[in-house]
Specification:
Length: 280
Amino acid sequence: MFTKRTKKFMAILLMICMVFAFTGCTKKTSQADEEKVEAQPQTKLEKIKASGKLVLGTAADYPPYEFHKVINGKDEIVGFDIEIAKEIAKDLGVELEIKDMKFDGLLAALVADKIDIIIAGMVPTEEREKSVDFTKQYYQAEQGLLIRAEDADKLNTTDAFKGLVVGAQKSTIQEEIAVNQIPGAEPKLLSKITDLVLELTNKKVDGVVLVSPVAKAYAESNPALKVADISFGAEEGIAAAVNKGNEDFLEAVNKTLDKLMSEGAIDKFIEEATKLSEQE
C-alpha cells in the first residue's frame, strides 16, 4: 500500500515527465517545421524549377509571333515567341506550359501569379513597367496598317482615313497609333487580332493597325488584303515580362535571350514562323 506522501510524490513525478515529454515533442516539431520551411523554394526561379514547368502567358492570334496552327491534325500554338519560350524552359530544365489568353488580360494574370512569364510581342511601355519587370528587348519591328486590297489606291495616307473606322487590339501600342496618329479616324478596339481581321474582310472597319510582320503575314495568306504604304515612324522593341522582385528569374531569362541573339537564332525563328503562318 502506498502512503499519501508516496502517492503525492509519484503524481508530481508523473507531471514532470509529461512536461518534459511535451517540451521534447514541441522542440522536435518546431525543428521539423523549420527544416520544412528551409526546404521550400524561396524565389520564383526556385519555385519554377521545383514545379518542373514554366507557365507562359501569351495571346495566340498574332502571327508570326504566336498563333494557332493545325499540325498533323492537331491544333498547336506556334510562332517565334513560342520558340523563344521553349528555349528559356529548356535552359531552366523544365517543361513549357502555354496559356492562351486575351492580350489585355495578360498583365493582370502575371501580377496574380497565374502565369510565370509573358512573351506575346509586348512593348515595354512606362505604364506597363509600373506593374511588371521587362527583359531586354529581343526584337524590333515597324508598325503597319492592314487594309483591303481593293482600297490600296485610295488609302495610302493617314489623312485618307478621315471619317473611316480603324481597328486595333486593346491595350497595345497599335491602340495608341489608331487613337493618336490617324487624325479624324474612328478607332474600333477589340481583344483579338483575328476578330479585327474578320471585321476588315467584312467591311466593318477600313484598316487594322498591326506590327508589320503580322500585317504582312495576314496579307500574304489572304489576297483580298494588303499592307498599306503608310509608315508610323520609329520602331518599337518588344520584350518578355516577369513579376516584379524576381531578379534571379529575370537574369536567367536575359541569359537565354543573350544567347539566342548572339547565335542569330531569333532571326531564324522569325523566318520559320513567318513561312509557317503563310502555309495553307
